[in-house]
Amino acid sequence: MEKLDLILWIISGGFAITFGLMLVMWNGLNNRIDKLDLRMDKFDEKLTDIDRRLCRLEGAFASKDCCMIKDDKYIRKAE
Prior knowledge:
Helix content: over 70%
Radius of gyration: 30 Å
Oligomer: single chain
Number of domains: 1
Structural class: mainly alpha
Strand content: under 5%
Largest sheet: none
Number of strands: 0
């Protein structure tokens, strides 16, 4: 019975160490996320600016018939 108790204590210790390491990693990850939250606001502004620029380019290409996203039946073909 002593060997079984020893094995159970070793397994329990392994779970305790693993859980402790996971808790430390989780807290470190939460701290990094809090720091990244400030950067995400700037990233959101830049992403919105890029989206606006792409919309303007798409509008310019569509107005000059350079847009390739069209249905084939509306494109006139030279014969």
